[in-house]
Amino acid sequence: MSNIKYLLLRRTTQIGLLFLYFAANAYGWHILEGTFGASKLFGFIPLADPYTTLQVLATGFVLGADVLLGALIIILFYMIVGGRAFCSWVCPINMVTDLANWLRRKLNLDKEEVNYRFLKRNARYWLMVLGLIVSAVVGVSAFEVLSPITIMQRGLVCGFGAGISVVIAIFLFDLFGVKNGWCGHLCPLGASYSLIGKVSLIRVKHDHEACTNCMECKVVCPENQVLHMINKESISVTDGECTNCGRCIDVCGDDALGFGIRSFVNKKD
Ligand code: SF4
Ligand code: SF4
Predict the structure, then answer these.
(1) Based on the domain organization, do 169 and 116 belong to the same domain?
(2) What is the dihedral of CA 230, 233, 234, 239, to 10 degrees?
(3) What's the pLDDT tens digit per position in 19-56?
């Protein structure tokens, strides 16, 4: 039977982190200050988003050692918990795109999906590279200027302005346009975390013996191409695009999926 354990844990984490940023602003708390781009944990541990850091470096700006250390800390952290764990456990846009995806299923809109054959899932990697090139050419962190993640975080912490229209546009695009359109096809930040996910330690493991091939996991997975082993073999999900959201585990009534540690020795893991 399906449950919502990981959904509840993810929402608690996402809202809890947003509250800590809000509390830094509103009450002067020093637990988590800044933005997802660059923060300070407990007032002294630097944290920096690696893609944001790369964009700033591409502009030619010389960054301090603390920012570089912050990016390294984040890379190492997500090399353990799963690169795109950032997407499903931290990023506030995930709540918007999850809602659009859930509504698509409830309204049966998947059947009406506009067939954007030209929009491939690897478009996000090209946009990631483009973001760096544009940053280098114009001397400004290109994605940061338009980033819906930053807009959403600022909006939830300090109040929304016109930027809310970007968030609404993503919601409508995912609901009526392309399924998982933004996070699964276009977001360059998600793409950068996918690269970390390719070598990350905590992975979803599939037990072929326990699986009854109901395919419920593939219905709810926002990146269902990563579940290519279902109905075939007992291996881990090693593709970097997996967000470690745990939806597939929540929905699996056969205990055929669960989190585990990836083995770099045994090829089957
Ligand atoms: S793909 Fe981008 S917007 Fe979507 S959850 Fe990941 S970082 Fe956030
Ligand atoms: S394989 Fe599972 S954990 Fe990974 S993205 Fe799909 S539903 Fe989420």
Answers:
(1) yes
(2) -60
(3) 999 999 999 999 999 999 999 999 999 999 999 999 99
